[in-house]
Amino acid sequence: EKSTSSSKMQESAMKKKQKKMNGDPKASQEEESHTCCGCRFPLLFALLQLVLGISVTVLGFLMAGISSSLLVRDTPYWAGIIVCVVSLVGFVMLCISYQPDEKTCVQFTVKLMYFLLSALGLVACVLAVAFVAHHYLQMTKFTCNTILESCQCKLDTTDPLGRTFVYQDAADCGSLISMLNLYLLLQMVLNLTAALVCLLACFTMWKHRYQVFYVGTWFYPLAATEGQQQKV
């Protein structure tokens, strides 16, 4: 009995050494789930979301200050505010221990909030890109004139019943159109980047939580029982 127990101890020690040498896949997966590009998750995503959210918000308020006639959908500061809130929740997640399998209610609640808000930020940024791109395409076809400290633009000057777009508080149509075109392009780039960051954050959390399958643990007891029945 002593010889069998010592042989079992030696075999277990050899298996542990082999796992250390070859690398335990479960341990490596747990370590990778805690980090992203060398940073603890979601530090990198939260920093990017904060920078992009502040940029989109500031640029949106600058666009609103150019002309009082611009609609809320054309100045997507609301998308930037949502992304900033997402980043703040991500920083809160850094204060708790991040684990793929939640063990406390606080971990589950914060992770769920971050995931849902990231999805909301993704939708908001995509909508902002769509609205801004539509406005930019319209402005490339405008024919504008300055009338009574306002810039009046039309898509088709030959159509007397065509819609007229009026930009108030604009003394010079040329400078207004050039500034708006630049701001709209920046909004498209920033919102598209923020949408990609939110998408990657959602995908990373989903991958950590659900893309791990321990199939062998399910079939091992069945194989063991079958082997015992054959021996009997």
UniProtKB/TrEMBL annotation:
Keywords, A to Z, come to: Membrane, Transmembrane, Transmembrane helix
| Pfam families, alphabetized | CD20
Matches recorded under InterPro entries: CD20-like, Sarcospan
Spans annotated as Disordered:
1-29
State a GO cellular component annotated for this protein.
sarcolemma
Q: Which residues cross the membrane?
A: 43-66, 78-100, 112-133, 184-206
Ranges annotated as biased composition (Polar residues): 1-10
- In its keyword annotation, does this UniProt entry include Transmembrane? yes
Where does it reside? Membrane
Q: How does it sit in the membrane?
A: Multi-pass membrane protein
Spell out the PANTHER family in the cross-references.
Answer: SARCOSPAN
Query: Protein name, please?
Result: SSPN protein
